[in-house]
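tool_call: predict_structure(chain=1)
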Amino acid sequence: MSTLDLGLRFFLQLAVILACCRLAGWVGRRWLGQTQVVMEMVAGVALGPSLFGLLAPDWHGWLFVPTLTTLTEDGPIQLLHPSMAILFGLGQLGLVFYIFLVGIDLDTDHLRASLGSAGLISGAGIAVPFALGALLAIHFLARGGLFAPGVATPLAVLYLGASMSITAFPMLARILHERGLTGSRLGTLTLAAGAFDDAVAWCLLAIVVASITGNSGFAVLAVCGGAVYCVVMMTAGRRGLASVGRRWEERGALSAGAYSSILLLVVSCAAVADWIGIYAVFGAFVCGVAMPRGWLSREVVRRTEPLTVTVLLPIFFVYSGLATRIALLDSWNLWLLTAGIVAVAVVGKGAACCLAARISGEGWRDSAKIGTLMNARGLMELIILNVGLERGVITPRLFTIMVLMAVVTTLMTSPVYRWIEGSPTTGPRLR
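tool_result:
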């Protein structure tokens, strides 16, 4: 494979991804009432083997070739194709920068006022779906064919419980951003609850990985290291950034060197979080929250947002969607099982968060909105599912079932939210 062939394939991949995402977003907004971010996930699934690969397998195999065979002294081995590796890296970069921008946009005054409510909503959004996921795991182990052979019951319970508890934090953030709700009290409360929710879910996943590898230190590092990182960034890190920000503001311009230093800080925070084991996006999110508000944050957002939102982030959504293989569900029993899991997911997450928000003092309308937003799983679910598949915990069939659950709960978010927002204010149900 020549450098010319690699460059041609990569730029064609990029062109197809961006064109399909813009087209899907237009169709979604025009006829389906969906946001751009949700349709980017759908575009990723459509560009994968479930549609594009089914209709044009030769073209799909050339454009999105997943692996490359390389000869070594030990024989041929399969490696990730260089063009796909580039897409993966760009997608991760876009995700990290976008979540950093979400952190900047978070209203910390609203966050402090809503901390108790966010904790209650997050707790309900973890405990109830985790319990339901544990029951499903026990049933699936008895059924067979969904968990990998030899997976112990405690491991299956932990893994599926964490999978059911996850919230699509990046997708949640972008839905709120597209609706202009990020800095509102409702948006801040939901973002805080989603961040807490996913942080706990990733700590649970770290315990699962530790159970698989027999390395308990991995889980301890994830939980304790994440707490230390947050404390350091929100104290010493925040004061240091505020001091530097005042100096740059006095000069009235953010130089190229200063801006590159901020980007270096963001990717460094992401690397630290990834090393700790709580996933890179949370490092970037905390870094964004620690940024001083005012001139500096507005300048950083102005320079970073256009390329991140229009180019880099769609690559992340499409790359993740390429792994979905709907053809694995080859019987009515499996489709009925999938429908049952979707129903359990909606009740366990959406209804539980809605009731928790109502108990915390929110009105029924806002409580229903919060429950609807928290119910979306999206591509954070795909990440945790990929970990389980790669580590040999679940089979490809259960992977596909859970992916469809993530897609359905995410697709229903925008229309249900819009229905709640436009529902009559009279009556006890959504008053």
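agent: The first strand starts at residue 67 and ends at 72. Proceeding to next step.
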